[in-house]
């Protein structure tokens, strides 16, 4: 791969794209689990208050 | 000629429907003010990363970071690198944000109240809201300009509706955002932020890969070399940057990481201190991408369109003809996602400070949850109205960068000093806090006034410069805190009877 004399910016750009793609997929999966957990805890809290 | 077609319109429509459905579906979980402002402090790390990243990337961010790429080349991404380093260090060490989350407060001024008293809390709330709202005032118009330019929907001709298409489109968008933010508060913001993060990220990554594939890394490097020379790669070799630029941005980014209320609110909504720190650590590198990815879009615009004076609008003009049909829909959905997540979070955050700190003398924490929720919703609606009147229907004049820099520094210089002193300096007191708030605000405002008065414009721009005035604001706020606290301590010692 020709970095055209700019290895720092080439590496940083590549790192951004790889990291960003990975974190997007990872957060998309785990974040959904976070939302489910958050809503469940809030619902449980509401149920406790009404009982 | 833009390539926005029916397929793209369908993608955008689908995205908007999905967002509204997700935003409205969670409103039934909001029963208390704490649910509305902080999602009951039940936010997990991954949701926090999605929310923080989506909030801190709006169309306005994309526009000025692309402008940085166009005007300064790769070196224009330097503030993003500095912010990533600052966020990583703060996340790893818990500096500032650890004590803030541990205190269990709703806003930063509430923490300051515990150390410096209710007057400082109120004054801090006013400075935060003023700086934040004025900063946010430019979001809608800049976002609208981008969307119209990329879709090719703007332009002359037609009747009143065509002439005011930007205002009509952005009013409709703001109404959609306001509806789910008012009804669902932080819960709706988090759920929609999550969806918006995924859509926004997909759009940013795909368009960047397309640019690198079709224009090529070599052409981007050549364009920067041809138009900016060594200064396009090294901020210290760039005549518009240098050490003052680096120092000012280092102060600005550290202060933003510590006290920018929309970022801090993610820490406060986290389940515990550890989760709050993990959100910062996990999101830190995003801030490099936040500057570098749109920066590459700006560099691509420079390579394709060539140099021009209106560098702010070069990137959307380039994308309008570069991005193919089909992908254009993803790009618009991504940018709408970026803008909506920022608007909703910002409206909710400043509403939270208004309720928790500025209106505190009125309700004293004694109102019922129902009444509190009603006031919070009313405040969010009021902020939406302010945005429409101030930022959209009343066009701003002047330079976007100066505007954002000044409004940001007015708030960040003093609040970062107050937070650090509050958490780590026993000698700090209310006198020092008030002095720091004044110094942090007066210095950048004085620079702006000097710059606007014709007799002192040259002195302000050439002798002082925006970066030194910014550095002076941070140094001045810290010095004012130190000297004011010494004076306050001496006065208190005199008042104590022997």
What are the main properties of this structure?
heterodimer, A: 51 residues, 86% helix, B: 498 residues, mainly alpha, Sodium/glucose cotransporter, 24 helices, 0% strand
CATH superfamily of the largest domain in chain B: Sodium/glucose cotransporter
| Range of strand content of chain B | under 5%
Shape of chain A: rod-shaped
Q: What gap, in angstroms, lies between the N and C termini of chain B?
A: 82 Å
Structural class of chain B: mainly alpha
Please report the distance between the alpha carbons of the first and last residues of chain A.
Answer: 65 Å
Q: How many DSSP-defined strands of chain A?
A: 0
Arithmetic mean pLDDT of chain A: 89
List the helices and strands and how they pair.
The complex is a heterodimer of chains A (51) and B (498).
Chain A (H helix, E strand, L loop, with lengths): L6 H44 L1
Chain B lengths: L5 H20 L7 H6 L6 H11 L3 H14 L5 H16 L3 H6 L5 H9 L1 H19 L2 H13 L8 H4 L1 H50 L2 H12 L13 H18 L1 H9 L3 H11 L2 H20 L8 H9 L4 H32 L1 H4 L5 H24 L7 H25 L5 H23 L4 H8 L1 H30 L3
Helix pairs in contact in B: 1-11, 1-18, 3-11, 3-14, 3-15, 4-16, 5-13, 5-15, 5-16, 7-8, 8-18, 8-21, 8-22, 9-11, 9-17, 9-18, 11-16, 11-18, 11-20, 12-16, 13-21, 13-24, 14-15, 16-17, 18-20, 21-22, 21-24, 22-23, 22-24
Could you walk me through the main structural features you see in this protein, from its secondary elements to its overall organization?
The complex is a heterodimer of chains A (51) and B (498). By secondary structure, chain A is mainly alpha-helical. Chain A is 86% helix and 0% strand. The mean pLDDT of chain A is 89. With 498 residues, chain B is an all-alpha fold. Helix content of chain B is 79%, strand content 0%. Chain B has helices at residues 6-25, 33-38, 45-55, 59-72, 78-93, 97-102, 108-116, 118-136, 139-151, 160-163, 165-214, 217-228, 242-259, 261-269, 273-283, 286-305, 314-322, 327-358, 360-363, 369-392, 400-424, 430-452, 457-464, 466-495. The radius of gyration of chain B is 23 Å and the shape is globular.
């Amino acid at each position: 791969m020709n970095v055209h004399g700019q290895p720092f910016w080439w590496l940083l750009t590549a790192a951004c794209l790889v990291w960003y793609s990975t974190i997007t997929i990872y957060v998309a999966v785990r974040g959904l689990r976070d939302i489910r957990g958050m809503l469940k805890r809030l619902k449980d809290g509401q149920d406790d208050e009404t009982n | 000629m833009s390539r926005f077609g029916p397929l793209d319109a369908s993608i955008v429509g689908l995205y908007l429907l999905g967002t509204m459905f997700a935003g409205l579906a969670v409103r039934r979980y909001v029963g208390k003010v704490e649910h509305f402002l902080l999602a009951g402090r039940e936010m997990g790390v991954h949701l926090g990363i999605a929310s923080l990243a989506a909030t801190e990337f709006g169309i306005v961010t994309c526009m000025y970071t692309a402008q940085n790429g166009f005007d300064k080349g790769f070196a224009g991404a330097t503030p993003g690198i500095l912010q990533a380093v600052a966020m990583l260090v703060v996340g790893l060490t818990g500096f500032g944000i650890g004590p803030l989350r541990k205190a269990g407060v709703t806003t930063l001024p509430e923490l300051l109240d515990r150390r410096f008293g209710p007057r400082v809390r109120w004054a801090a709330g006013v400075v935060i809201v003023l700086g934040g709202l004025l900063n946010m005032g430019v979001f809608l118009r800049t976002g609208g300009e981008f969307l119209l330019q990329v879709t090719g929907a703007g332009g002359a001709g037609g009747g009143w509706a065509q002439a005011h298409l930007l205002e009509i489109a952005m009013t409709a968008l703001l109404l959609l955002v306001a509806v789910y933010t008012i009804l669902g508060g932080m819960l709706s913001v988090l759920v929609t932020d999550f969806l918006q993060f995924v859509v926004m990220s997909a759009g940013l990554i795909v368009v960047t890969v397309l640019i690198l594939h079709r224009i090529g890394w070599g052409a981007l490097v050549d364009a920067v070399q041809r138009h900016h020379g060594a200064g396009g790669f090294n901020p210290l070799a760039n005549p518009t940057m240098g050490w003052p630029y680096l120092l000012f941005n280092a102060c600005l980014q550290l202060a933003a990481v510590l006290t920018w209320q929309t970022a801090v609110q993610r820490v406060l909504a986290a389940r515990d201190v550890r989760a709050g720190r993990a959100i910062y650590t996990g999101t830190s590198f995003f801030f490099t991408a936040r500057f570098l990815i749109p920066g590459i879009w700006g560099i691509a615009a420079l390579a394709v369109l060539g140099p021009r004076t209106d560098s702010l609008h070069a990137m959307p003009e380039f994308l309008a003809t570069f991005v193919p049909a089909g992908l254009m829909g993803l790009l618009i959905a991504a940018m709408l996602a970026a803008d909506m997540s920022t608007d909703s979070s910002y409206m909710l955050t400043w509403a939270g400070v208004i309720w928790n700190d500025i209106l505190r003398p009125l309700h004293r924490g004694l109102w019922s949850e129902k009444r509190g929720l009603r006031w919070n919703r009313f405040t969010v609606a009021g902020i939406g109205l302010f945005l429409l009147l101030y930022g959209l229907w009343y066009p701003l004049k002047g330079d976007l960068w100066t505007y954002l820099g000044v409004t940001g520094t007015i708030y960040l210089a003093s609040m970062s000093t107050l937070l650090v002193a509050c958490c780590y300096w026993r000698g700090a007191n209310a006198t020092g806090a008030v002095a720091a708030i004044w110094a942090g605000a007066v210095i950048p405002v004085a620079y702006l006034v000097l710059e606007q008065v014709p007799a002192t414009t040259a002195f302000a721009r050439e002798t002082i410069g925006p970066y030194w005035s910014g550095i002076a604001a941070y140094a001045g706020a810290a010095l004012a805190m130190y000297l004011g606290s010494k004076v306050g301590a001496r006065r208190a010692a005199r008042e104590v009877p022997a």
